[in-house]
TrEMBL record:
GO-annotated cellular components: plasma membrane
Segments traversing the membrane: 21-38, 44-62, 74-94, 100-121, 255-276, 282-306, 596-613
Gene3D superfamilies reported in the protein's UniProt record: Calcium-transporting ATPase, cytoplasmic domain N, Calcium-transporting ATPase, cytoplasmic transduction domain A, HAD superfamily/HAD-like
Subcellular localization, as worded in the UniProt entry: Cell membrane
Positions of the P-type ATPase A domain: 135-235
Family under the similarity heading: Belongs to the cation transport ATPase (P-type) (TC 3.A.3) family. Type IB subfamily.
Topology term for the membrane: Multi-pass membrane protein
GO MF term list: ATP binding; ATP hydrolysis activity; ATPase-coupled monoatomic cation transmembrane transporter activity; metal ion binding
One Pfam family recorded for the sequence: Hydrolase
Protein name per the record: Heavy metal translocating P-type ATPase
InterPro entries in UniProt: ATPase_P-typ_cyto_dom_N, ATPase_P-typ_P_site, ATPase_P-typ_TM_dom_sf, ATPase_P-typ_transduc_dom_A_sf, ATPase_P-type_domA, Cation_Transport_ATPase, HAD-like_sf, HAD_sf
Length: 641
């Protein structure tokens, strides 16, 4: 018995969240029913159904058109389409050729569908902002006279002290006054490795505390925190209207004005200038409204782009916005985030050097200690040992030395894994070759871990975020494709960034960037190039993704916010699909241009025929609808690839 209630609730939700989609769907159904009943000779029923289609499908366009006319004294294509549709209906009733009414309903349906797509694009901003908000904490542990009090983050003021326990989200930006911990800043800065924070260091809201408790002092209002600035930047970038969209809007309104003006002149002047009868004059004017309505012109774009979207989906590329398929084919510069985009985003053991050239004991001792650690570097070492098939004895009396390393007993001997200064104090003199190799790896941006066992240095282990296998090959292909500028953006240090860039063939690097810095780089590139793409995966990339002409996110590694903000998603994180996406965008753009030329040419032919008196209404509708169908079929060519 619960099914009707659930069904009703679901319909109410759909109607509330997607009224335009429901209206377009109902309009499509009514048009089909109207055509069917008219074909069966049920004229009265057909007229009622088609009238409902006009009202339901054309309500929103009529409202927007009249609102624009009233408030801005401007005509737009929405109102022109309604006038053209009504003109077709009037002609059908006047000459009792009722299929013209179906033609008018089809015009309304086409515009209703375009309204649905526009509404979907507009809703993305709200979803991306909601995703960002989910990363912030609503409450904080405020310290008052040494006691904890749970308070709302919005109530915190400059000077308040806050406690952040291990594993918790940092509630707001602050300065560490007591404690030591490794903070996972990847959501904000994109750094692949946790950053050690101690007294005097700044931590950011939305980052994740490691194993140590921290006491913070609030140094700026919560609304000025880095994550809140990210939210505002995403809002600003996504609501800015790009120049291309402004041009399209101006063209639509100019076209509508021209058609209305010509229609009025054609409906009033010929009896005085050419001696036409009023019946013939009105007839020609209404034919003009039908054949001049830009259905073929409007269809020149969307079918091609939608078929391109379907093509991309089959190849693991998700385009969220049809306009972005065309835009991606026009990009001249690409900015790549490093961590999680060009790299895997996970630290791995990349090099090992043992004193006695035997790595088994080195990895076994290191894994014995690090198996009891929660640090990502330790997890990388354990994974490397497991991959080699090594087994180890469980360590005992293990203690972590914050900021230095870890120490314990393995098979009755003291074992140490950590930084060079910490390890060398506990061991015999270090071989020069080991020191030289350690310095070389560090210069390459790798994190070097020293291993000591029984007062003797066993060797060193290099841990780093590894480059994606297809990264270098993808960069080469993009350069061959004619991309003029390829840069890398990262929150990591310059040394690590330069090492990764050299490995994959990127010439220009911007390092140690915060989210707002990445946004600034994108804006700088946009001053040099007409179309700029940003490829990223993290929350810290969201403002840059929103600002870029085309924002591209990694489908698997990407954060929810990046996926919501981006225009394009590379499913399965396959960078090599970026080249295919650009080629697909360029081909879609060529098809759109071909369709526009064809549509305008056909409209011109129909208009000339109408002005010379060689056009009948059925022929005008046939030419109008026929050109629209041909343009749509042309746009669907991408579906077969």
């Amino acid at each position: 018995m619960s099914f009707p209630a659930v069904s009703s609730s679901r319909w109410q939700t759909l109607l509330k969240e997607h009224p335009d989609a429901i209206a377009a769907g109902v309009c499509a159904l009514l048009v089909l029913l109207g055509w069917f009943t008219l074909d069966r000779g049920w004229l009265g029923v057909s007229l009622l159904i088609l009238t409902a289609a006009y009202v339901i499908g054309g309500y929103e366009s009529t409202r927007e058109g009249l609102t624009t006319l009233w408030r801005e004294q401007e005509l737009d294509v929405d109102l022109l389409m309604i006038v053209a549709a009504l003109g077709a209906a009037i002609l059908g009733l006047w000459r009792k050729e009722y299929y013209f009414i179906v033609d008018g309903a089809m015009l309304i349906l086409i515009f209703a569908i375009s309204g649905v797509l526009e509404g979907y694009a507009m809703s993305r901003t709200e979803r991306s902002i909601q995703g960002l908000m989910s990363l912030t904490s609503d409450t904080a542990r405020k310290l008052v006279d040494g006691q904890e009090q749970m308070v709302a983050v919005a109530e915190l003021q400059i000077g308040d002290r806050v406690l952040v326990k291990p594993g918790e989200l940092v509630p707001t930006d602050g300065i560490v006054t007591e404690g030591f911990s490794a903070i996972d800043q990847a959501p904000i800065t994109g750094e692949s490795m946790p950053v050690e924070k101690t007294v005097g260091d700044e931590v950011f809201a939305g980052t994740i505390n490691g194993t140590g408790a921290l006491k913070l002092q609030i140094h700026q209002p919560p609304e000025s925190s880095l994550i809140q600035r990210v939210i505002r930047l995403v809002e600003q970038a996504q609501t800015e209207t790009p120049p291309s969209q402004q041009f399209i809007e101006r063209f639509e309104r100019g076209y509508a004005k021209a058609i209305v003006l010509i229609g009025i002149l054609l409906g009033t002047l010929p009896p005085f200038l050419l001696g036409w009868t009023w019946e013939n004059t009105v007839y020609r004017a209404l034919i003009f409204l039908v054949v001049a309505s830009p259905c073929a012109l409007m269809a020149a774009t969307m079918p091609a782009l939608l078929s391109g979207i379907a093509n991309g989906a089959r190849h693991g590329i998700l385009f969220k916005n049809a306009a972005q398929l065309e835009a991606i084919g026009q990009i001249k510069a690409i900015a790549f985030d490093k961590t999680g985009t060009l790299t895997t985003g996970k630290p791995q053991v990349v090099r090992v050097m043992a004193v006695d050239r035997s790595t088994d004991k080195l990895l076994q001792v290191a894994a014995a200690l690090e198996s009891l650690s929660e640090h990502p570097i330790g997890a990388a070492i354990v994974h490397a040992a497991q991959k080699q098939g090594w087994e180890w004895t469980e360590a005992i009396n293990v203690q972590s030395e914050p900021g230095r390393g870890i120490i314990g007993e393995v098979e009755g001997q003291i074992a140490i894994v950590g930084k060079a200064a910490f390890a060398q104090v506990q061991a015999a003199p270090c071989p020069d070759a080991l020191t030289e190799q350690s310095q070389k790896w560090e210069q390459e941006g790798k994190t070097v871990v020293w291993v000591v066992y029984a007062d003797r240095i066993l060797g060193i282990i290099a841990v780093a975020d590894t480059v994606r296998p297809a990264a270098a090959r993808s960069i080469v292909h993009l350069k061959k494709l004619g991309i003029e500028q390829i840069v890398m953006l990262t929150g990591d240090n310059q040394r690590t960034a330069d090492s990764i860039a050299w490995e994959i063939g990127i010439d220009k690097v911007y390092a140690q960037l915060l989210p707002e810095d990445k946004l600034g780089v994108i804006r700088q590139l946009q001053q040099q190039y007409p179309s700029v793409a940003m490829v990223g995966d993290g929350i810290n990339d969201a403002p840059a993704l929103a600002q870029a002409s085309v924002g591209i996110a990694m489908g698997t590694a990407g954060s929810d916010v990046a996926l919501e903000t981006a225009d394009v998603v590379l499913m399965a994180d396959r960078l090599e699909k970026l080249e295919y996406a650009i080629r697909l965008g360029r081909r879609s753009g060529r098809i759109v241009k071909q369709n526009i030329v064809f549509a305008l040419s056909f409209i011109a032919i129909l208009l000339i025929a109408n002005f010379t008196g060689n056009m009948t209404l059925p022929l005008g509708v046939l030419g109008h609808e026929g050109s629209t169908v041909l343009v749509i079929l042309s746009g669907l060519r991408l579906l077969k690839d």
